[in-house]
């Protein structure tokens, strides 16, 4: 697998429905829409999608390592990622976000970027 085949997309390039505030950017509020940059397929994510993603990946070890190498460290308390294959074109995709613990029982999730590999099949 070639690293060069994985591209970085800023949150605003692939998401709709994120909120900006005085002290935050690209925050998930309720739901947001992700559009695959390889095939235009749209996926609706909910707040709990990011909550459940914590620390897990469906990628095999080799692929996960490649994505890990490309994942920056964000200046936030906690950082998470959500790994999946696009259901339409099967491009391996990682959404990188920061998690702000604001009440001990709940989090704000701010999307940073998406890393997207090559499409594996035509839509
Ligand atoms: Zn796709």
Key features?
3-stranded antiparallel beta sheet; binds zinc ion; 4-stranded antiparallel beta sheet; globular; 123 residues; alpha+beta
Please characterize this protein's 3D structure:
The chain has one domain. The protein is 16% helix and 36% strand. It has three helices and seven strands. It has helices at 11-14, 47-52, 61-70; strands at 7-10, 15-16, 31-35, 42-46, 78-85, 92-101, 107-116. The strands form two sheets. It has a four-stranded antiparallel beta sheet. A three-stranded antiparallel beta sheet has the order 2-3-4. Strand 6 (92-101) and strand 7 (107-116) form a beta hairpin. The longest helix has 10 residues, at 61-70. The structure holds zinc ion. Zinc ion binds next to loops.
Largest beta sheet, briefly?
4 strands, antiparallel
The helical percent reads 10-25%
Total of helices: 3
Order of strands across the biggest sheet? 1-7-6-5
The value of Rg in angstroms is: 14 Å
Question: Averaged pLDDT, please?
Answer: 91
Q: How many distinct folded domains? A: 1
């Amino acid at each position: 697998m070639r690293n060069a085949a994985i591209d970085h997309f800023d949150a605003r390039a692939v998401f709709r429905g994120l909120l900006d505030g005085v002290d935050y950017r690209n925050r998930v509020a309720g739901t947001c829409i992700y559009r695959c940059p390889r095939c235009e397929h749209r996926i609706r994510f909910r707040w709990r999608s990011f909550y459940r993603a914590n620390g897990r990946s469906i990628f095999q070890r080799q692929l996960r390592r490649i994505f890990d190498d490309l994942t920056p460290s964000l200046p936030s308390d906690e950082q998470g990622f959500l790994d999946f294959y696009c259901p339409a074109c099967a491009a391996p995709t990682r959404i990188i976000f920061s998690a702000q613990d604001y009440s001990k029982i709940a989090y704000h999730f701010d999307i940073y970027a998406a890393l997207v590999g090559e499409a594996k099949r035509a839509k």
